[in-house]
Amino acid sequence: MIRKLFFGGLxxxxxxxxxxxxxxxxxxxxxxxxxxxxxxxxxxxxxxxxRDLDSNPNGRVRxxxxxxxxxxxxxxxxxxxxxxxxxxxxxxxxxxxxSNVASATPSGGSGGGTISGSSCGTGGAQTTVNATIRVTSGxxxxxxxxxxxxxxxGDGSQSEGQQPVFRVENGATLRNIVIGTNGADGIHTYxxxxxxNIYWMNVGEDAMxxxxxxxxxxxxxxxYDADDKFFQINAASTLNVxxxxxxxxxxxxxxxxxxxxxxxxTFDRCDINxxxxxxxxxxxxxxxxxLTNSRLHDAGTVCIGPWSSCTQxxxxxx
Length: 318
Known about the structure:
Helix content is 0%, strand content 56%. It is mainly β. The strands form four sheets. The chain has a 16-stranded parallel β-sheet that branches. It is globular and about 60 Å long.
């Protein structure tokens, strides 16, 4: 299913079913889904919110943990025209209980144009990767499989020295990939690469790192929960990103701290939501960045540092 944000769409109806002591409902809006729930039994100690692209709870992803008193939540990490399924999971006296599944189909936001993320969703068949997969030429097509990093690569934390799930080199193409909930150090590129239709379920150390000079093209990607930065740039290079969804990160992009080499970055048609610090950060006065035709929500400062040029055009806030 293609996940898209259609600007200016109509509100679509939500659906929910009843189950157990937690009654959850979901209602769709423009670029968001509102969740409300109630209890007929004991007050919870912990509450977690889960989301998926189907009603089967296997493979669902936790998107938030909320206080025991919370009874509503707005999910803005969604794409217009896609149906999302939700659950509330609580713990009382050490016993976990799930709500009914509730679904809703958000519309797009205001403005014009279309932003597309990954069409893979959270993927199909799963495989565990215990040694980095190298793509040295041609195209590696993952068929929207979910690739989960094994412990040999890392634990998906912010610890330095974790290994990538994929290493893409010399202008090769990696496409139709889902990086699972252990993202380790994501994807490394050397001497340029093309990344197409990639989904990061839960970014580990970084989603993608440019390790050596070249031009890297990234398109139709989607990623969530990068505690620090989503893209890391460690060498003089060009990065062109289009049709991207990046939600909940420290920064969307960071040039390696303290470096003065030149990078040239363009982001076009991106949805950037909930950045702790901002969008672009550099310490180099020779680097350039440009953000166009994008949607921003709680994105912080767009241009951080002494950029030679950092510009915006055609962007909207929602």
